[in-house]
Amino acid sequence: xxxxxxxYFDVVSPYSYFACTQIExxxxxxGGTVDWRPFxxxxxxxxxxxxxxxxxxxxxxxxxxxxxxxxxxxxxPFGMPSSFPARTITAQRMxxxxxxxxxxxxxxxxxxxxxAHWGEDRPVDDPATLNAIADEAGHDGAALLxxxxxDPIKQKLRALTDEAVERGAFGAPTMxxxxxxxxxxxxxxxxxxxxxxx
Length: 198
Description:
This protein is α+β, with helices and mostly antiparallel strands and 198 residues long. The protein has one domain (4-196): 3-Layer(aba) Sandwich (Glutaredoxin), CATH 3.40.30.10. Helices cover 57% and strands 10% of the residues. It contains nine helices and four strands. The chain has helices at 14-30, 41-48, 57-74, 89-101, 106-119, 127-136, 141-148, 151-166, 188-196; strands spanning 4-9, 33-38, 174-177, 180-183. Strands 2-1-3-4 form a four-stranded mixed β-sheet, sandwiched between helices. The protein is globular, with a radius of gyration of 16 Å. The mean pLDDT is 95.
């Protein structure tokens, strides 16, 4: 029976961006699937007392070099956005809305948001830009944006965020294969091993 990677991610996270560019191919190689689960990284950090790496000066200096290394390794466009850190709550809600309509549509929309933010420096905290990106990705951006403002979608994003915290998440990306948790883009090899073992 094929296993599933449960992937918790936020467009604000560059390491989520990198992991998300690789995760579907990884799952296909290992004969599994990916359950894309948008959550709010800020909510996770607040709940766990964590803080963004860039908040620590020494780690922030290292971060820039490390991100460039990963972008080169994966061959994906990358640059620090002018709106960093962006407020991605509307983007995350739109992803939840897409997930509620059709879970299979989430990867394409998520990658479109990630590329826009990390590869093209488009302001993903601007509703009009999110609308346009969603349209470009083949979605009804206006409908997703409208859904993002509804209470059921807001509550679902909160629930996914709370669920991740309850399962032990403290940052992004966080992935689960069964009950086994893996944190970070640099743990994808272990994720693949766990998936193959199921």
